[in-house]
């Protein structure tokens, strides 16, 4: 009986080892991927930048381009996540081969599946609501699929400035949790000091 039990335990252990060894390599993150951000419009004005917004802007600027800042005057017309510290502009030139490559590298990385099959994993971990770059908008509520973008102040692309077309910068808006550094990318990377 004792030998039978020992053989059973050994067999079970062999099966467990085989199952564990067939799992994909360990994920980079321990925390589960965050859900897709919902649209959270600006409702108040901020006088200081949000820590997650600044951390992500600086992290991206280290790859190239420049950090174009976060806050905008609350006296300016219309709603904007810039006014509550949840958006920043990453200064890149869509006509520059190097800047376009830098932008595309981020877009590819942000909207890729992770090793566990989670879609748009990095963008979700960063709390990205939407990205506007080079006449395209990538929004969480459409699964970050690129869609044509035309600023409301423009009648056509031909009459629209480089800035309003987002060809001289990439605009990135974050969820409230992302802007505060509370989504998994910030927590696990230590990008925002606790």
Characterize the main sheet: 6 strands, antiparallel
Give the H and E element order. Answer: HHEEHHEEEEHH
Write down the domain tally.
1
Q: Low-confidence parts, pLDDT < 50 over ≥5 residues?
A: 2-27
Q: For the CA atoms, what is the radius of gyration?
A: 22 Å
Structure summary, number of beta strands: 6
Q: Give, in spatial order, the strands making up the sheet with the most strands.
A: 1-2-6-3-4-5
Strand content: 5-15%
Shape summary: globular
Average pLDDT number: 87
**Spatial separation of the terminal alpha carbons:** 56 Å
Structural class: alpha+beta
Helix count, DSSP H or I runs of 4 or more residues: 6
**Share of helical residues:** 25-40%
Question: Any overview of this molecule?
Answer:
The radius of gyration is 22 Å and the shape is globular. The N and C termini lie far apart (56 Å). A hairpin with a 2-residue loop joins strand 3 (128-133) and strand 4 (136-139). Helix content is 31%, strand content 13%. The protein has one domain. Mean pLDDT is 87; it is low at 2-27. It has 194 residues and is an alpha+beta fold. It has a six-stranded antiparallel beta sheet with strand order 1-2-6-3-4-5.
